[in-house]
Amino acid sequence: MEQPSLPQNQPTGQPPRPGEWQPPRGRRKRPGYREQQARNARMFGGRRKWVLLALAAAVPISAVGSVAWGLISPRSDTARTGDCGYFTRPGRGGWDFHRRACTDPDAVLLITNGWSTQECATGDMNFAQSRRKNTSSPMKYLCTHLNATVGECVNDPGNVNAHLYRIRKVPCGPGVFEVDARVEARDPNVCDASRTRFRETKAITHAAPPVSFCLHKI
Length: 218
Known about the structure:
The chain has 218 residues and is of the alpha+beta class. It contains four helices and nine strands.
């Protein structure tokens, strides 16, 4: 007896015979998929709620970032005129000023003008640091001088401007610079006498207050 034919989209449970039409294959949803989606929507409020949650999380992060920016270099912010010490650079955000007694072997710099909107004297900017809180705030300056006496040594008097945090007093020895002259005036010729005795010299002159140093490489 001839079997009744089934509709073409009706599965028979048997593997298709060669040449027989097959329904298109596609990715089938797992059982219960739609029910799970409905539960998720009720629990989390859908995509809109996720967007709102993300925006809400970004607000405290931004606030923390702003507070942290305002706390850059807490030790250097409290530095005062007349303090001695040295800079370090703990991170990309700014520098720290570490106070020492002006006679301390580590006190390589003297602050001549604490943080203020007053610019450092012309010629002193290479021993200065500047910063502002934001683009609408005024620029502030911290002005320093070399703090050294004849016979003391520093690692490299060329550590100025962006590298001022590297300058240090060090034990005298080969490769470092020794102070062989100090003049309480701004004297561009402070190294004239030293050049006749030493192969490499370095003059440092400050304007306010005026003081000049000559260092030679050991």
